Amino acid sequence: MDTYELFWAYMRLDHEIDEFYHELALGQGLSDSAFAVLWSILELGEGCTQRDICRQFFLSKQTVHSSVRKLEREGVLSLLPGEGREVRVCLTDRGRDLAREKVLPVMEAERDASASISPEEWRTMMRLGERWLAGFRAAAAERLRKEN
Fold it and tell me: What is the pTM of this model?
């Protein structure tokens, strides 16, 4: 396999990982965005903002807003005013139970799987991913500059 074929094998693996998270969310009876919102609150702490949630999972404002409003209607979340126009997102008692039952086991499984790879291996993967992204940005800029 040449480097480009290996790159696409890696991309397929990345998409397979994304698909597995999707299957896990659906298996827990949650949409991807609801799963991400609950995960973010567990990770970031109650009172995080919708902006924090967007940044945590690289979701659009519209996606997070829609999901948060739906979860609020279902009695899973409550919204509290923050500074200025900020809205703080908190779990209700029902939401805490739901997050503990549906999301926390997946988070724990992710942590278990992550522990099977050494810190040095993780640093190597990060370094290589960053190197590839820098190279892609430079190559794209060069090719697009030539075409314009």
Answer: 0.89
